[in-house]
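Slide 14.
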Amino acid sequence: MRLQEAARSLARKDVGGALSRLRQVLRYPSICSRENLAVALKQMSEACHQLQQPEAAAAVAYPATRLHDADALRDAARSLIRHRHPDIAAGILYYAVHWLSVPDEAWSDLATCLEQLHNPEDAAALLKNSGAAERSIECRYQLGLHRAMSGDLEGLRSLLPSFLDTPHPEAPAWHGRLAAILTRADALAQHRERTDSGTEVDAAWWHFVLNGCLMLHAAPESQGGTLGRYCMHGDQPALVRTGIHRLGKVLQSVDLTPPRVLALPDRSSGILASAVGQLLGKPVEPWSDAAPDQPGLVVAYDLERVDPSIRERLAHHHPNQWLYAHAACWTKPTEFAPDFVTLVYQRLTAPWDAAGVRIIPELMAAFPVPDNQIPIPKFIQSIVGADLSTVASHNAEDTLLALVRGAATFEDAAAVGMFRKSGRRAEVRWASPVKSNRFLL
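Slide 15: predicted structure.
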């Protein structure tokens, strides 16, 4: 019935409806039958085609008539992961690991899907119970990450010695990354908030420990079930100013003094950078692709709004340069973590987004409005003049400053983003022990 409904949705170009039905067929942890899997793969290929994802469409179509081919199923799942369909990929991989002879890397792929589905607990259990973590050091590293994201710090600690006894070229680096998480967690444990029953509720603390990125504002409890994160968030000037205010306090507390604010070229980052310059008393200059290592505070409203080619140029630390993003998506994060972020969201509308679109009802279409027709100075001043007292945060400013002072002494791999001077920025972990309500979009 669901596959028939998916076929009807595809016929009328309703990709969202088709994906909703296909998720029900391929939903982890149910195991799809061979007959249904063959049909679902063909339909998923057509959905990817309609989404203009030709590489995924081809990868998913290939195993539809080769359900015995574990490598083809893995290739299809990996393509779907790259195109941000981890739920469908998890269903395909769960079929493969149960019915076919698969390499240990297939369990690692499945764990990656489950991380993106915010289920590190199952990922850790599957890696351990399958024996993959015992046989493969790569899977053991994945197990360590998923134990950390599950809050099982003692389980993570018990794994560390095994990396020192393994003659694998990546073993020292993997050991260092896992040990860094434990170093941060142990040193900052006194600032970690939990309920009396032990439930994890401190999204900002875990974001700092897992990613080395300081979350300046955690959503208040009034958000209902999101525990420090936002779901559908209409941003407000006062909240933007709150992030800038707290950023200024943090920089001052550890004597970090960026000489200038560097504005990225997108409209939203330009507005934010101008407000940051005024509020922190710093000159504002355009970020230059010709000098990506220029000292200063690089400002992005949201890295998702930055051109991907420019975003990749921001992926490395440089001396006396810091990266501040006001907002970041927590359900589909970017490739790396900034040094500072004000808030995390699932869906976001900036205060000026509506002004950037002109809707023509007769054409049933929306068109972008040029910057010279948008009152940008008005939006900058709305941030600069906003009332901070209207914003409630789950994390207190004093706790935030204590976290930063506690992290100032971390060295080597344990150093958090704001204190690093070289190397690639940390990959953002999708999951954490703090569970939040979210919409499956």
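Speaker note: DSSP finds 18 helices and ten strands in the chain.
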